[in-house]
Inverse folding.
C-alpha cells in the first residue's frame, strides 16, 4: 500500500525533515508513526498525500509512483485517501452534514447516494443527531469525529491521521482509536501519527519511530 | 486500492489485495461511474455553483452593488458614446438624403435630348428623382431669386445652361457611392459639368471615423478596467475562501471544480454590471430625449434620439457577462493555483 525507498526531504531552508527513510506498509495494516514534534511525522504524511515532493528517493502509494503521477490524476488519487487532521480542518460556514458530504460532492456522487453515505458515516461516529449543527457548536472530541466521518465517507483504502487525539483526554482518545480500529477491521489501511506513548503501548501495533528525520524503530513496541 | 476504489460498488474491499501492479485502478474508478451519473453530477455542480455564487453576492448587497456600479459605469460610458454617434450618423444620413446633384448640360443640348437624358437617369437604381430645368426656367428663377432681373433683361441671349437636378437614392454612409454616381453622370456627352458638394459629406464621415476610433479605444480601456475590477474582486473572494479551497483540494477536488464557483461569480458581476448599465443608459436617454426633440423641432427636423434597443441592451449585457467571465478566469489562473494544501 505504501512504500518508501530511501526517501529524503530537505526543505528550501536547508532543514532536513526526512533522511533516507525506508519502509513498506501492507494493505490492511494498522500502524503508528511516532516521534517528537519536528521528527518528520507530518512531512512523511505530506509525502504520501503528494502535498510535498521528496528531494530524494521514491514514494509508492496504492501502486502509484508518486513522482510520476500527472497533475491531472492527483485529485482522483486523493479521493482514495482519507485524512484526519489534528486541527480538524472543518469548514465553519456549513453544517456537519455538508462538511462530511464534501468528498462525495467533489467526486460527483448522486444526491441520494451522498445522503445515504453521509448518514452512515455520521452514525458510525455517533453524531447522527448533530447533522444540522454547525461544527463550531461542537466540542473538540465531536469536531474530531466529524473530521473522521469526512475522512471515511468516501470509503478510502488508506486512512491517514495526524495527531488525531492531540487535544483530547484519554477517554475520548480511546473512543477515537476504537473507531480507527473498526475501520481497519473492514480492510482500510490506517496510519496514525502520534507522540502519545501511552496510547502506543495500549494499542500494541506496529510503530515507526522517527528521530530527527531518521527511521530508528520499526515494529511493535514490546 | 482494490475494489473500494469503486465508488458505486460496495463490494467488500478486502477481497482484492492492493498491489503495486494495480496502477490502472484509477481509470477503473472513473469508468465505474456511468457517464450519465458523471454528467448529472457535473451539471448539478454547475447549477449549484451558479446559484450559490449569486446568493453569496446578494449576501453582501452593498459591496456587490458597488462593484456592479463600477462595472456599469465603465460599460455605460462607451455604450453611451456609441449610441450618440449612431444618432449623429442618422442625422448625417437625413441631410444627405436631401442633397442634390446639379448636372449642367452643354449649350448645344436640345430640350428633347435633355428630356431623354432625364428619363434615362430617372431609371437608375441610385437615383431617387431627376428634374429637368430648361435654360428659360433657370433664367426666370435667376431673375426672381437674385434681384438682378433688370440686368438679366439686358442680356442678348440666355447665358444659363439647361440643368438636370438629381436626387440620389443612397445610404448616408456612402460618399464613395455618391462619387461614382457623379462619375457616371459626367460621362454622358451632353454633360458639361456636375456639381456635388462632397466636402461636408466627407468631413462628416471623417469625423465619424475619428469618433469611432475614439470610442473603440475608450471601450478597450474601460473593458480592461472592468477586467481588473472583477479580477481583483475575485482575488479577494479566493482569499476569503482559502480554507475551503485547501480542504476541497485535499479531498480530491479537480481544478475545474475549485474554479467553477469563482467563474460564476465573475459572470454574475459582469451580467449584473451590464444590466445596471442598460438601465442607466435607458434612464439617461429618456431624460435627454425631450429636450433633443424640442431642439430638433426648432430646426424643422423630425430627428428623434434613439436609445439602446432591446436586442442591443441584451448584447450589452452578454458582452459584460463575457468580460466578467474573462476577468474571473485571469484571477483564478493567477491565484487559485497558489493555494495548495500545506
Amino acid at each position: 500500500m505504501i512504500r518508501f525507498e530511501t526517501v529524503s526531504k530537505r526543505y528550501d531552508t536547508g532543514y532536513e525533515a526526512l533522511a533516507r527513510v525506508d519502509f513498506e506498509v501492507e494493505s490492511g495494516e494498522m500502524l503508528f508513526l511516532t516521534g517528537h514534534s519536528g521528527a518528520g511525522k507530518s512531512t512523511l504524511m505530506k509525502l504520501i498525500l503528494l502535498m510535498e515532493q521528496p528531494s530524494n528517493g521514491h514514494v509508492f502509494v496504492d501502486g502509484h509512483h508518486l513522482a510520476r503521477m500527472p497533475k491531472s490524476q492527483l485529485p482522483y488519487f486523493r479521493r482514495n485517501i482519507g485524512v484526519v487532521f489534528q486541527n480538524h480542518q472543518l469548514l465553519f460556514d456549513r453544517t456537519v452534514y455538508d462538511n462530511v458530504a464534501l468528498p462525495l460532492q467533489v467526486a460527483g456522487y448522486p444526491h441520494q447516494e451522498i445522503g445515504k453515505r453521509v448518514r452512515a458515516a455520521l452514525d458510525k461516529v455517533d453524531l447522527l443527531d448533530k447533522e444540522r449543527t454547525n461544527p463550531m457548536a461542537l466540542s473538540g472530541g465531536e469536531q474530531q469525529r466529524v473530521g473522521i466521518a469526512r475522512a471515511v465517507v468516501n470509503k478510502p483504502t488508506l486512512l491517514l491521521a495526524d495527531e488525531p487525539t492531540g487535544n483530547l483526554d484519554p477517554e475520548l482518545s480511546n473512543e477515537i482509536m476504537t473507531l480507527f480500529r473498526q475501520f481497519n477491521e473492514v480492510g482500510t489501511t490506517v496510519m496514525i501519527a502520534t507522540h502519545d506513548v501511552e496510547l502506543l503501548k495500549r494499542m500494541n501495533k506496529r510503530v515507526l519511530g522517527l528521530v530527527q528525520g531518521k527511521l530508528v524503530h520499526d515494529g511493535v513496541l514490546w | 486500492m482494490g475494489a473500494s476504489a469503486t465508488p458505486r460498488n460496495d463490494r467488500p474491499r478486502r477481497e482484492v489485495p492492493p498491489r503495486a501492479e494495480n496502477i490502472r485502478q484509477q481509470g477503473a474508478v472513473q469508468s465505474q461511474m456511468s457517464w450519465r451519473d458523471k454528467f448529472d453530477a457535473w451539471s448539478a455542480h454547475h447549477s449549484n455553483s451558479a446559484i450559490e455564487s449569486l446568493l453569496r453576492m446578494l449576501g453582501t448587497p452593498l459591496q456587490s452593488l458597488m462593484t456592479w456600479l463600477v462595472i456599469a459605469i465603465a460599460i455605460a460610458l462607451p455604450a453611451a458614446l456609441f449610441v450618440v454617434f449612431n444618432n449623429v450618423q442618422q442625422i448625417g444620413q437625413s441631410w444627405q438624403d436631401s442633397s442634390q446633384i446639379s448636372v449642367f448640360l452643354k449649350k448645344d443640348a436640345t430640350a428633347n435630348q435633355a428630356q431623354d437624358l432625364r428619363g434615362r437617369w430617372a431609371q437608375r437604381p441610385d437615383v431617387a428623382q431627376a428634374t429637368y430645368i430648361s435654360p428659360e426656367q433657370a433664367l426666370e428663377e435667376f431673375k426672381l431669386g437674385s434681384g438682378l432681373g433688370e440686368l438679366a433683361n439686358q442680356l442678348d441671349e440666355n447665358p444659363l445652361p439647361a440643368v438636370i437636378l438629381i436626387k440620389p437614392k443612397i445610404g448616408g454612409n456612402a460618399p464613395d457611392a455618391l462619387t461614382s454616381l457623379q462619375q457616371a453622370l459626367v460621362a454622358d456627352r451632353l454633360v458639361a459639368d456636375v456639381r456635388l458638394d462632397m466636402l461636408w459629406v466627407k468631413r462628416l464621415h471623417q469625423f465619424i471615423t475619428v469618433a469611432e476610433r475614439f470610442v473603440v479605444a475608450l471601450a478597450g480601456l474601460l473593458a480592461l478596467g472592468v477586467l481588473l475590477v472583477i479580477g481583483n474582486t475575485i482575488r479577494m473572494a479566493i482569499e476569503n475562501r482559502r480554507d475551503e479551497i485547501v480542504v476541497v483540494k485535499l479531498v480530491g477536488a479537480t481544478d475545474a471544480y475549485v474554479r467553477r464557483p469563482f467563474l460564476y461569480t465573475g459572470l454574475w458581476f459582469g451580467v449584473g454590471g451590464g444590466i445596471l448599465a442598460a438601465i442607466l443608459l435607458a434612464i439617461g436617454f429618456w431624460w435627454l430625449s425631450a429636450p433633443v426633440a424640442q431642439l430638433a423641432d426648432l430646426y424643422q427636423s423630425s430627428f428623434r434620439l434613439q436609445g439602446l434597443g432591446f436586442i442591443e441592451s441584451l448584447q450589452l449585457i452578454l458582452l459584460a457577462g463575457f468580460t466578467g467571465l474573462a476577468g474571473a478566469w485571469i484571477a483564478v489562473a493567477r491565484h487559485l493555483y497558489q493555494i495548495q494544501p500545506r
